[in-house]
What we know:
It is built from 15 helices and 15 strands. The chain is α/β, with parallel strands linked by helices. Strand 11 and strand 12 (336-340) form a beta hairpin.
Amino acid sequence: MKYFFASRTNRLLSSPLRDIREMSGKEYFISLAEELPAEELFPFQLLEEAALSVFSSGPSALQYGEPAGYAPLREWLNNDWNVRKGIRTVSDQILLTTGTQQAIDLVMRLLLEPGDSVLVEHPTSPGCLEVLEMQGAAIVPVLGDQDGILPDLLEQHMQQVRPKLLFAAPSFSNPTGILWSMERREAVLDLCSRYGVLLVEDDSYGELHFDGLEPSAFYRKYPSLFALDTADQGGHVLHIGSFSKTVAPALRTGWAAGHPALIQAMTSVKRIADGQSSPMNQRLLYQLLAQSPFRWSDHLSMLNKEYKIRLKLMLELLKRPGWKGCSYHIPQGGMYLWVQLPEGLNSEALLKAALVKGVSFLPGTLCSTGTLDQRYIRLNFSHPGRDELLLGMNLISEAISEFTARS
Length: 407
């Protein structure tokens, strides 16, 4: 039978990500493309013990749970955010989701009609773009610099297109790794408040910072927009994130935090989407965080030290002759390095050559709506071990050298 798929699925079904993911499952293939943390750093043994503890509590652990998510875990988030981030919430302001991606999907389903305008930080997360395209949104990219989105351009867009919302990641955005300044955070939040635009703040990478600051000091210097949102009793920011990058992706546990009315409506949409996220996984995660020898702050510190080392290694490899002519901004955190290739190179063509060599990266074109220079690539420094990182970077540089020689 011939199937006629909706036109909004075109990008999704033709994405190079499909080829990358198929190749990534093969032995001896090195992926610098995907949004993966380092599995050797997962707290595997403690998770195993937490799982045994949850199962030993009895059959009720396997029963349906609340659509909003496991209440003790939501309360743990309340307390953790209050102590470390200066975010004050109550449980009915938090919805537990199946990762950050579902949080994005739920709010877009709730708010958007086909053709509605949505502002997005440019470049932005490929996953966000896929969700917006599936909802039929009119995506409007907003340019920024190393301090974040440019307020003057943002206000122009707000006046011209009357957007429903703005999607941004102020702390180590995917793919650029940019960390917004305090001044820029306040300016963008002020514009969203004045124009009545919901700001969806993706904080998936906010815990991964390499400056050595204690969490409380870091969040005083770079507070969440959700924490800053106090005008008119808040409600201008939806704060989303997950444990995928910090504990383990397979737990598929994320959150959306915002005004109770918005969270209640998103919970209703979630009932239709999947009823609820896995209560078992949420109980397991709570057991790990609150009832085991696991120390959250020590774990984050360990991740940040190791990822900082891997980033430093990648930066050293970029100094080699094969990467001559490339330019990049050194991030202070996150999982990615955003690299501009030399003049004359095309990231998607280079990817095909790299795949043949057994290595991948993410073409920057997947992080935009077609308005981005085709020379950008995103490199993941968190997932590959140090030996893999060395080999993978060398293989990509070989592909670059071959292209450069031909041109």
